[in-house]
Amino acid sequence: MAPNDPTPAADNDPTKSTSTKKKSRLAEARTWWNGAWDEGGTLHELWEDVRRAPDGGWHGMANWIKAAAAITVFSSVVLLFIGAVDVLLDATHRILTAVPNVQVGDNTSTGVWATIDNPIRSYIAVHSTGLPISASTVYTLWQVTGLFALIGGFITRSNGIRLTWLAWGCASIAMVWTTTPDSSRTVATAIAVLAWTTTSAIALRGLNLRPRVFSTVHTGAPQITVQPQIHIPAQPDGPAPDNVRQLGC
Question: What secondary structure letter does DSSP report for 182?
Answer without folding.
Answer: G
